[in-house]
Every structure is written in structure tokens, then in C-alpha cells.
Amino acid sequence: MGISILRQQISVIARVSRRSFSSTVKIMDIGFNGKRALVTGAGKGIGRALTLKLVEGGAEVVAVSRTQSDLDALQKISPKIQPLCLDIGKWEETRHAMKNVGPVDYLVNNAAIMDVKEYGELTEKELDRTLNINVKSIVNITQIIANEMKARGQGGSIVNVSSMLALYTVHGYGFYCASKAAVHQLTRSMALEYGPYNIRVNSVNPTIVRTAMAEKENLFDPNNQFITMMKSRTPLKRFCEPEEVVNPILFLLSDKAAMVTGIAMPIDGGLSVSFA
Fold first, then answer.
1. pLDDT of residue 27
2. Rounded Cα distance, 29 and 31, in Å
3. Which long-range contacts (CB under 8 A, 24 or more apart) does 241-244 make?
4. Residues annotated as catalytic (active site), given as ranges
5. Does residue 15 belong to any structural domain of this protein?
6. Among 49, 139, 141, 183, which is most exposed with the fewest C-beta within 10 angstroms?
7. Domain count along the chain
């Protein structure tokens, strides 16, 4: 009789444990069914990985890139991806192209460029190009999307992809650092302005991420002394993969972060701590 009762108790505990586990998984699940997102710089790196994750989560995504072949490749993966080939560094062209985008619940300003040069070597054309893409495009696109969010009255979430270099400076990367510092303050001021409309604005500030842009600038070259120093000062002793930036972005976009706005989230393996 005692063994029978014990078996019954074990069976009850097992059922409760299964229900508890199932409940936990459900609570932590982040889904985007029925939502629409717009992602800039969607053709490669972080933007591409993010676009695919959003689609996997049920969202439709307006994927913005200036490279048509990258957009063609994305569209072949899912019909939920709406390609928009566009140079966001051109103000009026961008405004015209986004007239018919439709309602958007999430905006990720991800596109950026990097010119690694000392200040004495930078040209006006390079300065303008960096400002146009890294800073002005965020203002332009956010105006367009946030105004539509306000008109709908349903709120929204915006994430700006910044950099740890918004807060620190590195020799030769000065103007890129300055452009990302501008993104840092844009995020804070946008959060203040759009908050009353239930539009949240946050940024993520990653360390070096394994993307085509980083590879182009030899940021993963083992002979690069600066990179070696950076890695040695990173407590986790490595840099980021695109997916490790994507997951925090998904959280910030989602309702799980409903009370989070105006923050700059470091994704740097603890590097910022070593500079504190």
C-alpha cells in the first residue's frame, strides 16, 4: 500500500513539474505574430540576422538595403520579407520611397558605415556620407515611422543600433565614434519626446561584431595589435556574433520590455567594465 501511495505522489509531482516547465517556456516566449517591422541595413550582418529572426517569430519585415542582390536572397527565404532597395543616405529619396510602406510596429535603425581614418585625412565627402547614413537617416526614418505610429495611436518600439564607441574613442575611428555618440543622444531625446505616445526608443551598443564591415576593416585580424588588446581586456575574452546582438534587440522590441525606454544596452562581453 505504501509503495502504491508513493507512486501516486511521484506521478502528481511529475505532472506539476511538466506544467510548471511548460508555463515557464510560455512566459519567456517572445513572439511577433501579426506585427510589422522595418529594418535598415537588412542585407548583411546584424540586419540580415535580425530580419530572419523576426520572420521566424511571425512578423512581416520591410527589409531596407541599398544592395538589390542581398534583398533578392532574403526574399527567396520568406514571402514575409518585403524588400526596399534604397540609399538611406539620401533624404528626399528615402521619404519618397517610404510613402507606401504601410503601418509599422517596430523600427530598427541598423545601417551604418565606417571610415577608418585620422582626422587630418578625412574628406568633406566622407564626413557628409558618414553623417547622412549614421545620423541623419535615423532622424529621417524615425520621423516617418514615428509619425505614423502616433497617428495610429497604438504605440511602437524603436531600436537604434549604436556601438560601444558611442562612449569610448579609438585612434583612427574618431568620426565614427562621434557619429555613434550622436546616436546615443538621439536615442535618449527620442525616448523623451515619443514616450507620451507609448513609443519606446532604445539603443544597443555592441562591441566588435563579426560582420562583413568588420572583416573589411580587418577587425578580426590576429595581427591587429589594437584588436588583440581589446580582446584581452574583455572579461569574456571574445567578440560578438550577429545573433548575440539580435537577441537583445528582439527583447527590446517586444512587450517583455514594455517599461524599458531611453537606455543604451552594452553588448560587449564586459569590455566597458574594464574601462570603468
1. 62
2. 6
3. 241/209, 241/210, 242/45, 242/46, 242/48, 242/49, 242/50, 242/209, 242/210, 242/211, 243/49, 243/53, 244/206, 244/209
4. 176, 180
5. no
6. 139
7. 1
Q: Does residue 4 carry a pLDDT above 70?
A: no
Supply the range of the domain harboring residue 218.
36-273
pTM across the whole model = 0.87
28 found inside a domain: no
Q: In what order do the strands lie in the sheet with 106-109?
A: 81-85, 60-65, 36-40, 106-109, 156-161, 199-206, 264-267
Mean pLDDT of 153-177: 93
Asked whether residue 8 is domain-assigned, the answer is: no
129: in domain: yes
- Number of alpha carbons in the 13 Å side-chain half-sphere of residue 202: 23
User: Cα dihedral angle (134, 135, 140, 141), rounded to 10 degrees?
Assistant: 50
Q: At 213, which CATH number?
A: 3.40.50.720
Cβ contacts of 275 within 8 Å, gap of 6 or more: 168, 233
Return the minimum-mean-pLDDT range out of 101-105, 114-118, 121-125: 114-118
* Element containing residue 126 per DSSP (H, E): helix 124-131
